[in-house]
Amino acid sequence: MSNPNPPILEETHVGGGNVNPVENTFTDRLSHVLADLGKNGIFIALIAVVVLFSILTNGILLRPQNISNLVVQNGYILVLAIGMVMVIIAGHIDLSVGSVAAFVGACSGVFAVQWGLPWWLSVILSLGIGALVGVWQGFWVAFVGIPAFIVTLAGMLIFRGLALVVLGNANIGSFPAEYRALGNGFLSDVFGDFEIDPLTLGVGALAIVILIVQQVRTRRGRQKYGQDVEPMAWFITKLVLVSAAIGFFAYSLASYKGIPVTLIILAVLVLVYGIVMNRTVFGRHIYAIGGNRHAAELSGIKTRRVDFWLFVNMGVLAALAGLIFTARLNLAGPKAGDGFELEAISAAFIGGAAVQGGVGTIGGAIVGGLIIGVLNNGMSILGIGIEWQQAVKGLVLLLAVAFDVYNKRRSGGQ
Amino acid sequence: MTTNILEMRGITKTFPGVKALSNVNLEVERGEVHAICGENGAGKSTLMKVLSGVYAHGTYGGDIVFENETVEFKDLSDSEAKGIVIIHQELALSPYLSIAENIFLNNEQKGRGGLIDWNKTNFEASKLLARVGLRENPTTKIMDIGVGKQQLVEIAKALSKEVKLLILDEPTAALNDEDSDHLLDLILHLKGQGITSIIISHKLNEIKKVADSVTVIRDGKTIETIAKADVTEDRIIKDMVGRDLEHRYPDHTPHIGEELLRVEDWTAHHPQDSSRVMVDNVNLNVRAGEIVGIAGLMGAGRTEFAMSLFGQSYGSRISGKVFLRGEEIKTRTVAEAIGHGIAYATEDRKTYGLNLIEDIKRNISMASLKKLERYGLVHDNEEYAVANEYRKSMNIKAPSVLVKTGKLSGGNQQKVVLSKWIYADPDVLILDEPTRGIDVGAKYEIYTIINRLAAAGKGIVMISSELPELLGICDRVYALSEGRITGELPVEEATPEAMLKLMTMEKPR
User: By the 8 A CB rule, do B246 and B238 touch?
Assistant: First the structure.
């Protein structure tokens, strides 16, 4: 398998050593930086929003407690955004996730509170129910061929209804402590009670080390294969900036309550799904299907199967979001998950996903979700009413997509 | 006063980083049919966009003089107001509206009170349809008539606007021979009525048939304008490619080995109407190192046969047997077909072949990601290296493999599609119209690649509507008509006359 190329290629194999002759000119470096900035416009937007609200709130936004809150308050939306961006990349949509989250939250209430099952069993059963919901919707989308918009619009009604049925018109609470930790637990004080939690700082430091090692390895790998890499100075600048951000973030968490359990769940999801989307055959197939379904089919990709599993995956993630939300409120109620689908969809689109499918990233969706989260949080601190918050968020979504469209047009895409 | 209806003088148009047109001159005489030839990317379409106002005045250099008057068009409606109408390669008709509605789209026939007068609309439409020789009810929906007729509707639409100069961009690219002939006759007929036409075309025989003069453009420059009497195919080709192309087809010495693929009694029905036979008892075989052609007119069932064979991608009630190296195999899904070493490169690159928003690299690997998998992960550096090798060996003209395939020219897109399938390493490669919409130079490269594949022991099935091409590179040719194989000839015996006779052979009724 080391040389998978058929012998038809007469040309000699050219491996590495493909040095770019203009590597060291200033303009080349600058173009790298600009290209990067263009590609990562979404990160810059996040930074801009954070800076703006830090100033407006006199720094309250970046206080340790608030940073911790930001993560915990937006965790479930970010979990949904991960599944949602995958569905959107494949060219579908899922309008039912809010209802599914409410339905699963209600079921988990029955398991953990009414039946008194152990917390871990309740969690497993609830995720299972999410998977079954996904199987149901995936079946209609993938194998019957009904547009996902319709299937999940129906699902939005069906599962909201079922949530009410399960709840029997009442709230279910209060949940066992271990269950509640999913939503508002913290990992800290393992090494004793310190002003600044050493575990959190340690994890932060570890994250920085892993990031640097991984980035350097990727860069070396690319160089070995003769690919263009960004100039060293810019590479280091970026690493320093990102490391500083992680460091600040870890320090903030450490000086509050430690690492939120929600953050641990999120970090694992981002890591795993990031790899799935970029480096696995399944992930590549999702992009291929979204880019051109016919071409994907005629390349031997089992498009129906991919669609089906995407919805199963979305169901499980919606269930997880429902669990986190229920745990945080310590209550399974009929209004749970209201409007989650819209926030998750907004996150994906603000994060650069394309309505036609084929384009989008997990990282983008997370940053998109964070932008919404910072807007929510910042405006709440400023005492801006919910009515204006809605309007501003709508405007941001519109502008983000408009910017994206403008950018593509300028770069000559059709 | 000159007799010229149109003069374009010193037209220069630059895009960021590219000079698309430099100092192009074009003179079109009143009442003539003027052909514009050039390879893909030579600048023909850009020139026509400048002329029709798609590129507004001020975004290009040079002057346009139409009917002895310097014109400065800001958009398409400006040029239409002067009587210049352009019909694009991709037809601009709405499939769900009727013929009459399409003809008078944005030019609605209003009656009293500003409401649309449908009787007048349909009556006027039928008069226009008679002028273009299309016998259809004006209330028929566009989606219910064939591409050839749709083309005529476009011309009727142009006539409704009192056209003086009609520009046709590759009008026969999607038409069969019969429809093409009809269209070309219509152009000559309109010429008799005083309508001047500019026709952009790749097809040299049709240029010879209709054009009074030919202007050849290469690399954004006018090479020369040739009068009808002096037009020869060789001269046009030489102008287009900038060199003599003595051999339009590369030499190929076949080394034919054992039988690779045999198809027996292959029958497939229409996907919606399962009583309609589209592929009728087809039997054929391909041997290692052999290039086998399938010739047939439009609608003969060539693509239908290939796609039904390739994982039942087309049709319903499919029956028949497939043997690979003598052993019977099933090809019920595309994955299964690929698994058995069969590949199919589609005739419609943009719809069925490529993911246009992805880069060259990911398109090449699309059908073979499993090969690049290490420990469950796609080895993306390896993928880059593989794609880069194909970029070099297939001569894909792009600065890197990270360029989106949507930005490549037709020929280079086709090379990406071929790379994808060559990387999948099949035994049998079915190529459906591999040179459609590709310029002469790139065609030669594609033929060379096909020869290379055959020389490496692959079995090639080549489907094409261009008979000379099949006879130029195949070892053996099948003729297909009404879904049936009507004959099989070794290339030495396959004269165009003999083939055409087989290709038009009707079913005994």
Answer: no
Strands B277-287 and B259-269: antiparallel
Q: What does DSSP assign to residue B219?
A: T
The tens place of each residue's pLDDT in chain B, 509 residues long, gives 468 899 999 999 887 656 788 899 999 999 999 999 877 667 888 899 899 888 988 889 999 999 989 999 998 888 988 999 998 877 788 888 999 999 998 888 888 888 888 989 999 999 999 988 888 899 999 888 887 888 899 999 988 888 999 999 888 776 777 788 888 999 999 999 889 999 988 677 788 889 999 999 887 889 899 988 888 877 887 787 665 555 678 888 888 999 999 999 999 998 888 888 889 999 999 999 999 999 987 678 899 999 999 999 888 899 999 999 999 999 999 999 999 999 999 988 888 999 999 999 999 999 999 999 998 899 989 999 999 999 999 989 888 899 999 888 888 899 999 999 999 999 999 999 998 877 777 888 899 999 999 999 999 999 988 888 898 899 999 999 889 999 999 999 988 888 878 887 777 76
Read off the amino acid at residue A167.
L
Nearest-Cα distance to chain A for B501, in Å, is 33
Q: Which member of B311, B357, B368 has the closest CB to residue A359?
A: B357
User: Which residues of chain B make contact with A291, given a CB cutoff of 8 A?
Assistant: 355-358
CB count in 10 Å sphere of residue A177: 10
List chain B residues with CB under 8 Å of A224.
381
Nearest to B444 by CA among B309, B272, B251, B270: B251
Q: Which residues of B touch A271 (CB under 8 A)?
A: none
Which candidate, A328, A319, A329, places its Cα nearest to that of A171?
A329
Chain position carrying tokens 């099948």: B478
| Other residues' Cβ atoms within 10 Å of the Cβ of residue B31 | 15
Report the gap between the CA of B421 and the closest CA in chain A (Å): 9
Cα–Cα dist B137/B144, whole Å: 11
Helix or strand or coil: residue B122? helix
Q: Which two tokens stand for residue B108?
A: 């609605």
Cβ-proximal residues to A193 (8 Å cutoff; 6+ apart), any chain: none
Quote the CA–CA distance of B6 and B164 in Å, as a whole number.
Answer: 11
For A7, the closest of B354, B389, B456 (CB atoms) is: B456
ipTM of the shown complex: 0.81
The whole-model pTM stands at 0.80
Q: What is the distance in angstroms between the Cα of A289 and the nearest Cα belonging to chain B?
A: 9
Q: Give yes or no for a contact between B462 and B494, defined as CB atoms under 8 angstroms apart.
A: no
The verdict on domain A61-188+262-400 having CATH code 1.10.3470 is yes
Phi, psi dihedral angles at A251 (to 5 degrees): -65, -40
A375-380, long-range: CB < 8 A, 24+ apart: A375/A49, A375/A53, A376/A73, A376/A74, A377/A53, A377/A61, A377/A66, A377/A69, A377/A70, A377/A73, A378/A49, A378/A52, A378/A53, A378/A56, A378/A57, A378/A61
Which token pair is A120? 């871990």
AA letter at A8: I
Name the percent of chain A in helix, strand, coil, to the closest 5: 70, 0, 25
Q: Residue B454: closest CA among chain A residues belongs to which residue?
A: A8
Contacts of B318 (CB under 8 A, 6+ apart): B266, B267, B268, B269, B308, B312
Tens digits of residue pLDDT in B487-509: 999 999 988 888 878 887 777 76
- A327 closest CA partner among A182, A154, A137, A160: A182
Domain boundaries, chain A: 61-188+262-400, 192-256
Pairwise CA distance, residues B363 & A149, whole Å: 28
**In this complex, do A10 and B400 lie within 8 Å of one another by their Cβ atoms?**
no
Q: Which of B258, B236, B254 is closest to B245 using CA atoms?
A: B236
